[in-house]
Design the sequence.
């Protein structure tokens, strides 16, 4: 039964290169469970994704977009996806867009019901860890744009590049700015897995896109990689709820330690 594609104005788009349907079931089935009926586009490599997986995604109404050209780009797939996002969105007229990681994302509410102003929404990680005292985030910024760029934002909250939400104007300006930053970065750094996160944080904290808002972790998206275990728990009314009893629309990195109970809950429901 087709679950997606009835609302032509919205799209959730994400890269799923190398993933099969079993990896993507929590993402697509939980999104359908929220009642979301906009478009879903997943970028896949048909050389790495089996035909049964592609057929299962298409049966749900997912637009499966071949993404093989990243192999010829002098950059990791995490960064190359932004070029494909821009290309895909430039050929369509969606009014609202969510750029999303896929394998470690699960939905609890319609992701577009955010209720906050602005053309563009970035999402902070837990503020207990800052860019400057996270080894990976520090290395990404330093490798891409140098020590001075890192020093300028070291005390800032980490914003996760895995999920960004906005209207068409905001998202297209964001993608253009990300690609402009990539053009300024050290060429060798573009091959480092996750380097897009470094560029994203320079963009976010540099205020490079007008009309953008950095949303606190768990207010809409709960990025759980740095989240203490006691800050979120398995719930009877959702997959998981926050310590204050609220339910975030999106859970990201739910398979990170120390969140095994939530990972197990996701797999029981959608595995």
Sequence:
């Amino acid at each position: 039964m087709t679950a997606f594609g009835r609302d032509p104005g919205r799209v959730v788009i994400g890269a799923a290169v190398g993933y099969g349907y079993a990896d993507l079931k929590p993402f697509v089935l939980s999104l359908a469970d929220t009642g979301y009926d906009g478009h879903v586009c997943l970028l896949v490599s048909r050389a790495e994704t089996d035909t049964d997986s592609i057929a299962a995604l298409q049966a749900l109404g997912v637009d499966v977009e071949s993404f093989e050209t990243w192999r010829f780009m002098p950059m990791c797939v995490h960064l190359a996806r932004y070029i494909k996002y821009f290309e895909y969105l430039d050929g369509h007229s969606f009014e609202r867009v969510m750029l999303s990681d896929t394998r470690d994302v699960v939905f609890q509410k319609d992701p577009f019901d955010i209720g906050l102003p602005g053309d563009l929404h970035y999402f902070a990680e837990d503020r207990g860890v800052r860019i400057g005292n996270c080894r990976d985030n520090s290395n990404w910024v330093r490798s891409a744009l140098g020590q001075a760029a890192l020093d300028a934002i070291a005390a800032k909250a980490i914003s996760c590049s895995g999920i960004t939400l906005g209207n068409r104007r905001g998202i297209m300006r964001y993608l253009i700015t990300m690609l402009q930053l990539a053009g300024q970065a050290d060429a060798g750094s573009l091959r480092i897995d996750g380097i897009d996160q470094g560029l994203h944080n320079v963009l976010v904290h540099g205020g490079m896109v007008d009309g953008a808002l950095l949303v606190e972790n768990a207010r809409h998206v709960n990025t759980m990689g740095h989240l203490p275990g006691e800050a979120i728990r398995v719930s009877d009314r959702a997959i998981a709820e926050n310590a204050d009893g609220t339910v975030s629309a999106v859970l990201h990195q739910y398979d990170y330690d120390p969140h095994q109970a939530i990972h197990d809950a996701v797999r029981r429901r959608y595995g």
In short: The CA atoms of residues 221 and 248 lie 6 Å apart. The mean pLDDT is 97. The first helix runs from residue 21 to 33.
